[in-house]
């Protein structure tokens, strides 16, 4: 009996090389047209969109293609003077996700002092709950993604001591499942994106010894499909962003070599748009800025010679973390 595998056929897909210049152009022009349909539709995640573009261009050593001054001014306007949190764009409510994106951009631009850093720390601390978990914003949704955001933000601004770290670790470990993976809350299904958040969280807090690395790495390896692409959960289609979540987790656990790098590279390259530049989620689909960063990030983890080295925990260029003297725990086998 044959199993039916949900996968894509990339045998006829071009290109086989990185379309470097096309991607630079795609990202540099992204969001330039403020009347653009996509620009209007993505207002609610504008701050993260800028982080994806800034990071992608920095990995390609083309950061000067974006206007640093207007980006920093935009971030300043998005910080809420009362709570200290940062919103996706002016006039919206602050959220943990956009606060992390804003801090990441300012670290890349080496100008954290442009916002109220004490306010950011106060905002993150205010979202921690008695069980150690974090709300994403004042509306009170709990998710392990926000635990990752909290320790990532506070480490980047050097204020990790404003939260109860042991409690935060306890909560994340309560979301660990029997398959070695993690979900969004206790007893929630394992998912590669949340595994990345929890592994990243444990790498930042120096607690990687709590992982069952063998079991978890097996689960992650099983995400690779015959096309070479990776999915996020059993029976799902491959997707370029999972190349990042899975590969970064395996890298942190020192087990990148457990999957076929060559096949994954072919899959990621097949998701490039040969006309406009940019990467799509899977072969033949339309590109977007999110998948463009994670495609480039995964290629960097695989050692692509045209890209700067990316840090697997923070998804930022390694040189930025070196400059900030931030060391994240990585297992070497
Ligand atoms: Zn995706």
UniProtKB/TrEMBL annotation:
Keyword terms, alphabetized: Metal-binding, Phosphoprotein, Prenyltransferase, Repeat, Transferase, Zinc
EC number: 2.5.1.60
GO terms for cellular component: Rab-protein geranylgeranyltransferase complex
InterPro entries linked: PGGT1B-like, Prenyltrans, Ptb1, Terpenoid_cyclase/PrenylTrfase
Domain Prenyltransferase alpha-alpha toroid: 19-316
Catalytic activity from the UniProt record: geranylgeranyl diphosphate + L-cysteinyl-[protein] = S-geranylgeranyl-L-cysteinyl-[protein] + diphosphate
Cofactor binding, note field: Binds 1 zinc ion per subunit.
Gene Ontology molecular function terms on file: metal ion binding; Rab geranylgeranyltransferase activity
Cofactor: Zn(2+)
Superkingdom of origin organism: Eukaryota
SUPFAM superfamilies reported in the protein's UniProt record: Terpenoid cyclases/Protein prenyltransferases (SSF48239)
Pfam families: Prenyltrans
Function: Catalyzes the transfer of a geranylgeranyl moiety from geranylgeranyl diphosphate to both cysteines of Rab proteins with the C-terminal sequence -XXCC, -XCXC and -CCXX, such as RAB1A, RAB3A, RAB5A and RAB7A.
PANTHER family with a match to the protein in the record: GERANYLGERANYL TRANSFERASE TYPE BETA SUBUNIT, GERANYLGERANYL TRANSFERASE TYPE-2 SUBUNIT BETA
Family that this chain belongs to: Belongs to the protein prenyltransferase subunit beta family.
Oligomer status and interactors: Heterotrimer composed of RABGGTA, RABGGTB and CHM; within this trimer, RABGGTA and RABGGTB form the catalytic component B, while CHM (component A) mediates peptide substrate binding. The Rab GGTase dimer (RGGT) interacts with CHM (component A) prior to Rab protein binding; the association is stabilized by geranylgeranyl pyrophosphate (GGpp). The CHM:RGGT:Rab complex is destabilized by GGpp. Interaction of RABGGTB with prenylated PTP4A2 precludes its association with RABGGTA and inhibits enzyme activity. Interacts with CHODL.
Protein name: Geranylgeranyl transferase type-2 subunit beta
The species this protein was found in: Hermetia illucens
């Amino acid at each position: 009996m044959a199993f039916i595998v949900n996968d894509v056929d990339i045998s006829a897909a071009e290109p086989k090389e990185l379309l470097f210049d096309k991607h630079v152009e795609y990202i540099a022009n992204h969001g330039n047209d403020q009347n653009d349909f996509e620009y209007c539709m993505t207002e609610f995640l504008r701050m993260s969109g800028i982080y994806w573009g800034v990071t992608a261009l920095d990995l390609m050593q083309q950061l000067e293609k974006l206007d640093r001054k207007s980006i920093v001014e935009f971030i300043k306007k998005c910080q809420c003077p009362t709570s200290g949190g940062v919103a996706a764009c002016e006039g919206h409510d602050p959220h943990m996700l956009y606060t992390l994106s804003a801090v990441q951009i300012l670290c890349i631009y080496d100008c954290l002092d442009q916002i109220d850093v004490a306010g950011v720390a106060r905002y993150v601390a205010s979202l921690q709950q008695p069980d150690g978990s974090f709300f994403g914003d004042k509306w009170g949704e709990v998710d392990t993604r926000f635990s990752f955001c909290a320790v990532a933000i506070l480490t980047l601004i050097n204020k990790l001591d404003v939260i109860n770290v042991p409690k935060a670790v306890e909560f994340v470990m309560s979301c660990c499942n029997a398959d070695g993976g993690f979900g969004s809350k206790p007893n929630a299904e394992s998912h590669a994106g949340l595994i990345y958040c929890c592994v990243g969280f444990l790498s930042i807090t120096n607690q990687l010894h709590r992982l069952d690395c063998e079991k978890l790495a097996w689960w992650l390896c099983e995400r690779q499909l015959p096309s070479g692409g990776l999915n996020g959960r059993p029976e799902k289609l491959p997707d370029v962003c999972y190349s990042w979540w899975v590969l970064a987790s395996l890298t942190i656990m020192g087990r990148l070599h457990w999957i076929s790098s060559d096949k994954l590279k072919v899959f990621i390259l097949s998701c490039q748009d040969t006309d406009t530049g940019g990467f799509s989620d899977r072969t033949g689909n339309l590109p977007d800025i999110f998948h463009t960063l994670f495609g480039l990030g995964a290629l960097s983890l695989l050692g692509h010679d045209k890209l700067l080295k990316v840090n697997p925990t923070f998804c930022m260029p390694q040189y930025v973390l070196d400059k900030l003297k931030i060391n994240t725990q990585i297992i070497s086998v």
